[in-house]
Design brief:
Layout: H1 3-18, H2 29-33, H3 47-68, H4 73-88, H5 91-101, H6 108-116, H7 122-140, H8 147-168, H9 186-210, H10 215-240, H11 245-263
Amino acid sequence: MNVLNQFRQDLACALSLFTRLPVFWLLTRAQRADKRPWPLARSLWLWPFVGAFTGLAGGIVGWFLEAIMHIAPWPAVTLTLAAQVALTGGFHDDGLADMADSYGARTRERKLDIMRDSHIGSYGVLALCLSVLTKVGALSVLPATALIPALMCSGLLARATLIWVPVVLSPARNNGLARLLSPVPLIPFLFAQAFSVMSIACWVYWWNAAYSPVFFALILPLLMPFFSLGIMAMTAYKNFGGYTGDVLGATATITECLVLAALSASK
């Protein structure tokens, strides 16, 4: 497989995992006919890019509603998040709800069973409500022109943080989609982190020049992924003995909430 075809397959894998966009047009005829599983772990170098892309799409919607349509901030950012959910399918939010529901059980085995149940309980509903309220509240205090960089930053950092979970934890199950990430391949992982660092450096320059000269308000959002990773990794290890796909999704959602909350300090 040449480099271009490999890139196309990696991009299709990343987009199909984190969005609801059609991706088969990216594949060659041979790749479409191939019945082997897609290279999930190899595609992780593109995950932060996809996170930034979904943030860009949502930010454009929010900017249009507020700056062009003059819709009030709260309904505008609510519709912005609705557009993001339509784009992503609420993949990470589902993980947060499932992980929250598992806290109603006592044993590790029962917790893992609950996370595989498609039904949602009161803990999951509360977690989703708090998540949405945090995002809406944080985004509503930012100017319309800040929505694009804010959502791009939170989307990128959420996926970059997610990648670290299978680095610091072992899989909680011997099967499942998330099991394919262990062990994390070194080269794609390093590419993902390099892309994230360069992107965040550009974002820091952009945000500082346009919105906030305050050092604390600038650095605080960049510290949130470390806090999120530490809390989620310890929680997952204590409750499940490792990570699952729901833990990865919950980590991304919690990181987004914390980063956006921190960005509201720049208002």
